[in-house]
Design a protein that fits this description.
Blueprint lengths: L6 E6 L4 E5 L4 H10 L7 E3 L6 H12 L3 E5 L2 E5 L7 E2 L1 H4 L8 H9 L1 E5 L12 H9 L3 E5 L2 E5 L6 E4 L5 H11 L5 E5 L5 H12 L3 E3 L5 E5 L7 E3 L5 H13 L3 E5 L7 H9 L3 E4 L3 E5 L8 E4 L10 H8 L4 E7 L8 H6 L4 E5 L2 E6 L6 E3 L3 H13 L2 E6 L1 H4 L6 H7 L3 E5 L4 H5 L4
Parallel strand pairs: 2-15, 3-14, 6-7, 10-11, 18-19, 22-23
Antiparallel strand pairs: 1-23, 1-24, 3-5, 4-5, 7-9, 8-9, 11-13, 12-13, 15-17, 16-17, 19-21, 20-21
């Protein structure tokens, strides 16, 4: 459990260099864990990082009756004897992605009661699109004292068209319809790799889902899904953050055990600033030791630059002299990092969902993360800054970056994690 007063101490200015394997994708692992609800046979997920979000998801599954155990980094799940269909506020309030358990419970038990989700504090992320999709397929939705209760009298069937692609909404519908007798078409579906990964695992369990990686998915429900051993894709957000940190420090870094095709837009944006990029079958190398120049980056749905890397990109561009811009077309309110980055001397002006950045040298500062990816941005800035920085709010950082200090040290960073509560008042990171 993260101490709320933990801080990262980073002495910046050292180029990152070396080789680092990429961990498995948290955003995939969370959904693959929920998919274990669709079978009464054992499921094994390989090489799962023990991030706090993963542990919360495990706790939710145990609450509804799933047996779980760890064997090293492999997570064993067995949903043979479910004992409920309620995901309470005390658990789902910790993580927004937990709302997607509704689809899995609806498929397996015919009903689901799920509280409004929690998670990071930036901006709205309404679940209305999830609920409307379920209703369009024949489910009934009721709201009762802060909970949403979904139930069905028969198999879900029909066509769902999302007004805009939604990763969580697409995943929720996939989980709700993979098991059953109905046929469902999802139009304007999210194309993110984490959606494709979920489809791949469901199909490995015996599902019949066509169209992965496209905006139209067809689900033909099956009577039974079986157990599976499955290894998720690499975490493209973790990978992107490390690449941006290496570029910000003018380093040379190789990332291994990943799918470069899932980072195409990120690598193209880095190349646009002058970073040399080399791709292999399962690895990526960047070299940022040459001259760099500003550019404009737009965060969009896949295959664009992911919104989860909007903040780390802003931190990187703040190190390059000249005028750059970062625009977020997915979550226009996701800019909690701007005020904190200003402590390093970063010059940024926010206009709606567009951030103007006038890059230049950064200096060390005390900063506090307000959400997961803002934390990643602060780390990128601190690594590039001259002098020492202290970063608080690690309760958020730990939700997205496993073993962060140790992994940064491995590629040359001067960083340590301090768990002394007495540090908090001195740097303004109280409760």
């Amino acid at each position: 459990m993260t101490d709320n007063h933990d801080v990262l101490l980073i002495r910046g200015g050292t180029p990152l260099a070396g080789e680092l394997p990429v961990y498995r994708a948290k955003n995939s692992a969370l959904l693959l864990m929920l998919a274990s609800l669709l079978t009464d046979e054992p499921v094994v997920l390989k090489d799962i990082p023990r991030l706090s979000d993963v542990l919360v998801s495990e706790e939710i599954l145990r609450h509804v009756g799933v047996d779980t155990r760890w064997d090293g980094d492999d997570l064993h799940l067995h949903a043979a004897n479910l004992r409920g269909h309620h995901a309470p506020y005390s658990l789902v309030s910790k993580m927004r992605a937990s709302f997607v358990i509704m689809g899995a419970l609806l498929a397996r038990t015919g009903e689901a009661r799920v509280s409004m989700p929690g998670g990071c504090a930036w901006g709205p992320r309404p679940v209305d699109r999830h609920l409307k999709a379920f209703e369009a397929l024949g489910a009934r939705i009721e709201e009762e004292e802060g909970d949403f209760y979904a139930h069905r009298s028969g198999p879900l069937a029909g066509t769902v068209r999302f007004e805009a692609p939604t990763v969580g909404g697409t995943q929720n519908v996939l989980l709700a319809t993979a098991l059953g007798a109905g046929e469902v078409v999802i139009e304007n579906a999210a194309r993110e790799p984490e959606v494709t990964d979920l489809v791949a695992m469901l199909n490995a369990m015996g599902a019949d889902i066509q169209g992965a990686g496209t905006s139209t998915l067809t689900v033909r429900g099956v009577k039974k899904l079986h157990g599976v051993t499955y290894r998720p894709i690499a975490d493209r957000i973790e990978a992107g953050t490390y690449l941006l940190a290496a570029a910000a420090t003018r380093g040379k870094l190789t990332l291994t055990d990943l799918e470069p095709e899932n980072l195409t837009a990120v690598l193209e944006a880095l190349a646009a600033t002058g970073v040399e990029v080399e791709r292999g079958a399962r690895q990526v190398t960047i070299d940022a030791t040459g001259p760099l120049h500003p550019t404009d980056v737009e965060a969009e749905v896949f295959p664009g630059v992911p919104t989860d890397l909007q903040a780390p990109f802003a931190a990187y561009l703040a190190t390059i002299p000249g005028l750059s811009h970062v625009t977020d077309h997915v979550y226009p309110d996701r800019f909690t990092h701007v005020e904190e980055l200003a402590r390093t001397g970063a010059r940024m002006t926010l206009d709606d969902n567009r951030l103007e950045i006038r890059g230049g040298p950064l200096r060390g500062a005390a900063m506090h993360a307000a959400d997961i990816r803002a934390g990643g941005a602060l780390v990128v800035a601190a690594l590039a800054a001259e002098g020492a920085s202290e970063i608080g709010g690690l309760v958020y950082v730990d939700r997205g970056y496993a073993d962060l200090a140790a992994r940064l040290k491995r590629v040359g960073a001067d960083v340590e994690r301090i768990s002394t509560p007495e540090l908090a008042p001195a740097i303004g990171f109280g409760d």
